[in-house]
Design goal:
Keywords: Methyltransferase, S-adenosyl-L-methionine, Transferase. This is Class I SAM-dependent methyltransferase. By secondary structure, this protein is an alpha/beta fold. Helices cover about 25% and strands about 25% of the residues. A seven-stranded mixed sheet has the order 3-2-1-4-5-9-8, sandwiched between helices. Strands 6-7 form a two-stranded antiparallel sheet. Helix 1 packs parallel to helix 3 and helix 4 runs parallel beside helix 5. It starts with a helix and ends in a 23-residue tail after the last strand. Bound molecules: S-adenosylmethionine.
């Protein structure tokens, strides 16, 4: 893993250690959300999951993965941070259909059999897309789907970058004033779409998820893409579907 991504995983390990030391932890999911509670699409975006081989990329404490396992999916939840992994292990020991893995997602994708569905609730912006996407595209079965949420505009109103580079965002340890500067790839939707297409995937939709609070600029995008049945299609650059995409500025 390159140094910048090692640094990111280390900050998540500090976060996980902090959370392990607290008596409070997150409640079970009431509704499935893609990071901002009570707005945006829910679990339906994933379609029928029973019987699918599914990867949760950057699974954290594993709540989403546990939900899908309960619906009959064969879920692997991968997280690079040992303390985040520990949180998931403490919370979901011996859960049928759920396999918890502590590893870099790229290393895991290179070694594992391909998945029918890879999803990520705000985990993907912590990996360099140029390193992740080749492994991710190859890690999907033909026809397999990728669905992920990604920060678009932070709560200070800083919009996405117009180049594929990481920039610092603030991660505050819950219940404290301690803040860490966390590198993240916060990219314009056209850049995410271009990266997906360049790696042979067909973009199916880009959905805007805005904070419901008045005056709060926080905004995410939910990306859904599919690996074509054949990755050899030379016209794949024309395969981008534009009609259902509702990418905001
Ligand atoms: C914002 S948290 C999301 C956690 C979880 N998906 C959720 O919604 O609760 C991002 C997670 O990505 C993990 N992560 C960061 N870099 C990673 C990598 N290279 N491979 C796998 N996981 C990674 C972090 O450890 C962290 O737990």
């Amino acid at each position: 893993m390159p140094d910048i991504e090692k640094h990111i995983a280390e900050i998540w390990s500090l976060y996980g250690r902090h959370q392990l030391g607290r008596t409070f932890d997150l409640p079970e999911l009431d509704d499935w959300t893609w990071d901002i509670p009570q707005v945006g699409p829910g679990i339906d975006v994933l379609g029928e999951v029973a019987g699918l081989r599914v990867l949760d990329l950057g699974a954290g404490v594993g709540r989403h993965a546990a939900r899908l396992a309960a619906l009959g999916a064969d879920v692997t939840a991968v997280d690079a941070s040992p303390t985040q992994y520990q949180r998931a292990l403490a919370r979901y020991p011996d859960t049928p259909g759920l396999r918890l893995v502590c590893a870099d997602a790229v290393d895991h994708l290179r070694e594992a059999a391909p998945y029918d569905l890879v999803y990520s609730v705000s985990g993907i912006p912590f990996l360099d897309p140029h390193r992740l996407l080749p492994a991710l595209a190859a890690g999907l079965t033909p026809g397999g789907r990728l669905v992920f949420s990604a920060l678009h505009t932070n709560s200070h109103g800083d919009g996405p970058s117009d180049s594929v580079t990481a920039r610092p965002e603030i991660l505050r340890l819950p219940g404290t004033d301690t803040e860490h500067r966390m590198p993240m790839w916060v990219l314009e939707p056209r850049l995410w779409e271009g990266l997906l297409v360049d790696h042979g995937l067909v973009v199916e939709s880009v959905t805007t998820i805005d904070s419901p609070q008045a005056g709060q600029p926080l905004s995410y995008r939910l990306y859904a893409a599919r690996r074509p049945e054949s990755m050899l299609d030379p016209s794949r650059r024309c395969a981008r579907i534009t009609a259902p995409v509702e990418a905001g500025p």
